[in-house]
Structures are given as structure tokens and as C-alpha cells.
Design goal:
The chain is α+β, with helices and mostly antiparallel strands and about 130 residues long. It has one domain: TT1751-like domain (TATA-Binding Protein, 2-Layer Sandwich), CATH 3.30.310. It has a five-stranded antiparallel β-sheet with strand order 1-5-4-3-2.
Length: about 130
């Protein structure tokens, strides 16, 4: 198996909004697409608590569509290692970026072609969520 390039692995959308503006909207936007917000992390703040400095804003949101999760976990419980989906919101090059690992790339690691349609559906929805957030 050959490694994927980051362009193949990541879905990234640039936003004119601030990290804070995007972050405030994550829960509401996800809910409109039947995804729940399971947790969030302000990595800049967490690192500061540990005495470390991160120059840029960086937040991570764990999101999940329960029906899709049930479908893939029924097929292969080891996929729990790749769940929930994560959306990162961070500063780079003076702008805000919204990014995720493509579910199709992530699930390809499990070598189960039956899961591809689920991964494609989740990826389409995540892309819609990210476009709406941006």
C-alpha cells in the first residue's frame, strides 16, 4: 500500500471568517446535517495550560452521524479507532482554514470496499458542513 499525499488525505476549505466565528457555528451547522457535536478542543489553550506556546488558533471538533457510525461499526468494529470524524479550524497564512481527513481516505486503510459508499456519503456531508461553516 502506498502512502497518500496530504492533498489526497485532506479536505480543506478557506474561510474569510475568524476561527472564533467558525467555531461558534459548528454545533448548529452540524445539527442541520444530522451530525452531532461530541466534543471540542481549543489546542492553543490546552498547550498554554501545559506551559507551551502555540502562535496560531487551532481548534478541533469531534462530530458524528450516529446512523453512519452504526453502519460502519456493524461491518467492522475496528473502525472505532477512526471515529468520530474531526473537523479542525485553524489559522494559516493569515486566513482561517476548515479541514478534515477525507473519510474515503481514512476508511481505505481498512481495506473493506463495502464501506466505500458510506465513506463517500459522509465525506459529501462533511464537505457541505465545511462549506457552510466557511
Amino acid at each position: 500500500m502506498s502512502p497518500h499525499s496530504s492533498a489526497e488525505m485532506l479536505l480543506v476549505v478557506e474561510s474569510a471568517k475568524t476561527v472564533e466565528e467558525v467555531s461558534r457555528a459548528v454545533g448548529e451547522v452540524c445539527a442541520r446535517h444530522q451530525f452531532g457535536l461530541l466534543g471540542s478542543y481549543d489546542l492553543r489553550k490546552k498547550l498554554k495550560e501545559k506551559g507551551l506556546r502555540l502562535e496560531r488558533e487551532c481548534r478541533v471538533f469531534e462530530v458524528c452521524n450516529p446512523r453512519q457510525a452504526q453502519r460502519v461499526l456493524t461491518g467492522n468494529p475496528a473502525i472505532a479507532t477512526a471515529l468520530p470524524c474531526r473537523i479542525a479550524v485553524y489559522e494559516e497564512g493569515g486566513s482561517t482554514r476548515v479541514a478534515t481527513i477525507r473519510p474515503t481516505a481514512l476508511l481505505s486503510l481498512f481495506l473493506d470496499p463495502e464501506l466505500l459508499p458510506v465513506a463517500q456519503e459522509v465525506e459529501r456531508t462533511l464537505s457541505e458542513i465545511m462549506q457552510e461553516l466557511a
